[in-house]
Amino acid sequence: MYVCALVGASGTGKSHRSLWVAKEHNIDFVIDDGLLIKGNSVLAGKSAKAEKTKVAAIRTAVLTEDAHAFEIKSALKENNAEKVLILGTSDAMVQRIANRLGLGDIDETIYIQDISSPYEIQQALNTRRMEGKHVVPVPTMELKKDFSGVMLDPLNILRRRGAGSYENMGEKSVIRPTYSYLGRFTISDYTIYQLAEHAAKKNEAVSRITRFRADKAEDGIRIEMDIVLYYGYPLPQVFSRLRKEIAEEIEKYTSLNSVAVILTAKNIVMKKTQGTGTAAAAQNPFNSGVTVIREAK
Fold this sequence. Notes:
CATH architecture of the largest domain: 3-Layer(aba) Sandwich
Number of helices: 9
Order of helices and strands: EHEEEHHEHEHHEHEEHEEHEE
Largest sheet: 6 strands, mixed
Number of domains: 2
Structural class: alpha/beta
Oligomer: single chain
Radius of gyration: 24 Å
C-alpha cells in the first residue's frame, strides 16, 4: 500500500487542506484524528475531537487502543485500499499511526508549509488559539451521532477552476471540541521525571538517577538522564532495555512521542552486602564519578 503523510503543527490547517492533497495524489482514504474517511463518509474509527480531554484526544489520534486500530485496519482491508493519506503533527506521529495499522514506512511526506503560505498558516493558528475552532473533513451529519463537542457550521470547500468556475471538493465540519473550551492543560517536567523514574526503578541494574532533563517540542519530547548502575550487568543490554521502558512509560501515560532518550552512566556501584548494612560502593574500584557509557535512542 502507498502511504502518504501530511505533517504540520496543531492548528496549521492540515484537515482543511487534506481534501486537496488527497485529490492531487489520487488518494481515496484519509486517516485524520482517529477517523478513517473516504469521500464524505466515515468508514471506521472515532474522532479524537469528540474526546473530553486533550490527553484522551491525543491517545485516540495515535490509535492507542487495539480495538480502535483493528477497526481501521479491517476497514482498509475490506475496502481494498491501495493508497492512504495520514495526517499528523510530526513525522514520528504519522509513522506511529502507520505502525499501529501495519502499513510499514511512510512513502511520501508532505509538510503543511509546502502547500500553504505563511499567511494562511498564521490565520489558521489564530483561529485555533483565539476561537478554539477545529475542522473535520466530513459532513456535519457524519459526526453528530456520537460527537460530544459543540458543532458550529458545515463548510463547503470549493476550488477555483477558472474565471467564475469552481469545483466542489466536498463538505467539512467546523467544530469546537469539549477540551478546547475547558481550558489549557500542562504536563510538567517533574511529572515526566516521575514516570521516567518509575520505569528506571523497575530495572534491577539501576541504582539511582543523578540528573534529569526533559525538552518538549512540537514533535515530541527529548529526555536526558544521568544514572548510577549496579556492577555486574552488561551495559549495552541494560541501556537498550531501559530506553525502551522509559519511552513506553511516557508514551503510555502522556501520549507524548519520545523523540530521544539519552542515557549516561555516571558511575558503577556495588549492591549492599546483605546482613552487613554497609554499602560496598566504597570498595568499588570503578567509583570514580566519571562517565562510563552514553547511549541515545
